[in-house]
């Protein structure tokens, strides 16, 4: 079975890529396009560190064969980062609030939070807890992450 | 392994077989394909098969098999709490109505709801389409939709190790007449003896008799002993505290 040409809108830019059969969205992003913010953690959809926004909804990119989403739009952490060298409001809030330690969960946490704030700009603490319930962090104990997301919401 | 993307139910049915498996949201199959050696020729994606969407006609709701759980939770308020009790937002945005019918215990909470709703499941194979009950769904034919009537009353509770994103210790769903249980048997089950007691208005007896339907297993979430022990408590709470 030959590779297929997949067209995606990645972080607002049209992209074409060649995918071997069965390639996941996560592998296409990391290994083909060099977008390495999304991390490969469990490969089972349970850790959340591969979280990307697919057609407006956060998903586990390790569970999506890229051939099945030809024509879709995908946002990764790279796409939320301003190109002028500054940080996004969530990145800044994570930095200010020491909400990242080893950093492995951070891209997924921020993408889950981006999806939450896009839908619900003024979330309650409980909304935040629910939004990141698919994202595992083994360093922080979550409290600093929850506070950072609430701070980012308040700052905007 | 190939990834096929048929664009109709007919093409999908023709494509699936022993060595070519249907792929809906991928939340059960992809973990397996990502981490094990699986000897399969193809997966058949349902994304373009026209199986997504929710139709309402009066009190009757028809859910396309590839409708995501997130969409069900958004559009059917009485099921919102049940959907929110399942996995995480990222999984609910992928996982589908049809896929949940095949999720092994202690997963498959939406199938517990569908059993309590006495949903009719449309399945299609080479012989054509037919309707079956939730408990008659088998691997092989393609599930294309499920249909049920919105109940006048609805009760749901799920006991978990954590408040979010955990599999069931015990799941209870009821329309006040039928009682369906999850987490306490290999597949969702109706608690028939409990339903008879409930029909007499005896909630305490219904709670006790629910154990008759249980055949629980030990797993990482709870022991079989614990599930059996707490089942009556959660049935009683579901039927008294959690009226929607």
Report a brief summary of the structure:
The complex is a heterodimer of chains A (156) and B (244). Helix content of chain A is 35%, strand content 16%.
Question: How would you summarize the topology of this molecule?
Answer:
The complex is a heterodimer of chains A (156) and B (244).
Chain A: E1 4-10, E2 13-19, H1 25-32, E3 51-54, E4 57-60, E5 73-75, H2 77-80, H3 89-96, H4 106-119, H5 125-131, H6 143-155
Parallel strand pairs in A: 1-5
Antiparallel strand pairs in A: 1-2, 3-4, 3-5
Helix pairs in contact in A: 3-6
Chain B: E1 2-4, H1 9-15, E2 20-23, H2 29-35, E3 42-45, E4 54-57, E5 60-64, H3 69-75, H4 80-84, H5 89-92, H6 97-100, H7 109-116, E6 120-125, E7 128-133, E8 142-149, E9 155-159, E10 170-174, E11 179-182, E12 189-190, H8 192-199, H9 203-209, H10 224-241
Parallel strand pairs in B: 1-3, 2-3
Antiparallel strand pairs in B: 4-5, 5-8, 6-7, 6-8, 9-10, 10-11, 11-12
Helix pairs in contact in B: 8-9, 9-10
Write up this protein.
The complex is a heterodimer of chains A (about 160) and B (about 240). Chain A has helices at about 25-30, 75-80, 90-95, 105-120, 125-130, 145-155; strands at about 5-10, 15-20, 50-55, 55-60, 75. Chain A is an alpha+beta fold and about 160 residues long. Chain A has a five-stranded mixed sheet with strand order 2-1-5-3-4, with helices on both faces. Chain A is globular, with a radius of gyration of 15 Å. The termini of chain A are far apart. Chain B is α+β, with helices and mostly antiparallel strands and about 240 residues long. In chain B, about 30% of the residues lie in helices and about 25% in strands. In chain B, the strands form three sheets. In chain B, strands 4-5-8-6-7 form a five-stranded antiparallel sheet, sandwiched between helices. Chain B has a four-stranded antiparallel sheet with strand order 9-10-11-12, with helices on both faces. In chain B, strands 1-3-2 form a three-stranded parallel sheet, with no helix packed on it. Chain B is globular, with a radius of gyration of 18 Å. The model of chain B has no long low-confidence stretch (mean pLDDT about 95). At the A-B interface, strand 4 and helix 5 of A face helix 2 and helix 5 of B.
